[in-house]
Amino acid sequence: MADFVIVGSGSAGSAMAYRLSEDGRNTVAVLEFGGSDRGPFIQMPGAFGYPMRMARYNWGYYSEPEPQLNNRRIFAPRGKVVGGSSSINGLVYVRAHAEDFDRWNELGARGWSYADVLPYFKRMENS
């Protein structure tokens, strides 16, 4: 039996599993419904539009009706594959606005201010 069970082997789930188990004190089980991320549509960033529309790789979620958009529902691709949504997004990366992080910190998420997380973004961007 594992000390922790993580549902989803996307970027966050995989990183969390690593961090929880890296000192050898905890065992971690990672559950993933999706299949392998091997395949030309995932491995070739220029083809990222294909897996986003394929039921094999994408859960096919939509938002609830959005009142400010005439009740349209917005397509929200979510990866159904090892690597999660990071495997189907064509290596697209967007950093949230600094004010978002600072607001989270003000609301009690200590250590999540923009100044706190910026070094991690820079490290990741230069990996």
Tell me what you see in this structure.
With 127 residues, the protein is an alpha+beta fold. The chain has five helices and four strands, in the order βαβααββαα. It has helices at 11-21, 40-43, 49-52, 98-106, 114-125, and strands at 4-7, 28-31, 61-62, 75-76. It has a two-stranded parallel ribbon with strand order 1-2. A two-stranded antiparallel ribbon has the order 3-4. The mean pLDDT is 91.
Explain the layout of strands and helices.
Layout: E1 4-7, H1 11-21, E2 28-31, H2 40-43, H3 49-52, E3 61-62, E4 75-76, H4 98-106, H5 114-125
Parallel strand pairs: 1-2
Antiparallel strand pairs: 3-4
Question: Can you describe this structure in just a few lines?
Answer:
With 127 residues, the protein is α+β, with helices and mostly antiparallel strands. The chain is built from five helices and four strands, in the order βαβααββαα. The model has no long low-confidence stretch (mean pLDDT 91).
Mean pLDDT: 91
Backbone CA Rg: 17 Å
Regarding quaternary structure, what we see is single chain
Q: β content, as a range?
A: 5-15%
Report the sheet with the most strands, covering strand number, pairing sense and barrel closure. 2 strands, parallel
Unreliable stretches covering 5 or more consecutive residues: none
Q: Give the spatial strand order of the biggest sheet.
A: 1-2
H/E topology pattern: EHEHHEEHH
Please identify the structural class as seen in this structure.
alpha+beta
Number of helical regions: 5
Number of strands: 4
In which range does the helix fraction lie? 25-40%
Shape: globular
Distance between the termini: 34 Å
